[in-house]
Specification:
Blueprint lengths: L4 E6 L6 H10 L3 E6 H5 L10 E4 L13 H9 L8 H10 L3 E5 L1 H8 L14 E4 L7 E9 L13 E8 L3 E4 L2 H10 L2 E6 L20 E5 L5 E4 L15 H7 L9 H13 L3
Parallel strand pairs: 1-2, 1-3, 3-4, 4-11
Antiparallel strand pairs: 5-8, 6-7, 6-9, 9-10, 10-11
Length: 274
Amino acid sequence: MKPVRALVITGYGINCQEELAAAYRLAGAAADIVHFNELLAGVRSVRGYDVVNFPGGFSFGDDLGAGKALANKMRFCRLAGGRTLLDEIAAHLQAGGFVLGICNGFQVLVKCGLLPNVGGNLEQEVSLIVNDSGKFEDRWVHCRAEQPPHTPFLKGVNILALPVRHKEGKLVFRDDHIRAAILDQGLCALRYCDPDGKIATEYPARPNGAALSCAALTDPAGRVLGMMPHPEAYLSSYNHPDWARRRAAAGGSEEGEGLRLFRNIVDHIRRNRP
């Protein structure tokens, strides 16, 4: 059977590519780590991949706002044929592919217009700005998935424990129309919550002050997912500071909760191939 193929983009200060590639490999996919410049130069292409990934990190040192410089390269730098990388990714999605952005990758997807894209024209509709605390937050949080999930990444997911590591994770909307569309279409894929699933409205359970306590967004088609927490940082039960109790509660399983998202998307792609 043809393997599911994941493209993991790196370069310019992205630094979570190895963990993200490992997540796909553990889930049974083939994963390639490719420098952004190779895509711009036409040495490599997003074509032929099932899922394109933008990992966490600090692209361009977060100058101009986290993710903005990389998003501008995607939108404005022309490839040899005259198209942009954003054009290529839009075609990838139209052909049935998927896109995942985590932390800095989420910021990139928001600022190039791939998320939430309720207008369908790849314009920036929301942003991720400086946390209410005004500082970098590095902590474990709980997130509750929208029910029913709008994206196959979150199939069967209810409450997840995941780490966050960001300074600019506060989601804000361009206007009330965008906010209403996100609510009406169920695009707020994950919301910060307490361990029992009650939506968090205060710090530190809501680490950044995000509107709607939103930790992740998906697009109307459910093919693009952006999230601030790091599922690739919880692939093993031993990643969690309370690993002994959590592993016992899971019946001795050594898998981390974050791995479920990658198993979900790999299984979904494999099952739905022509």
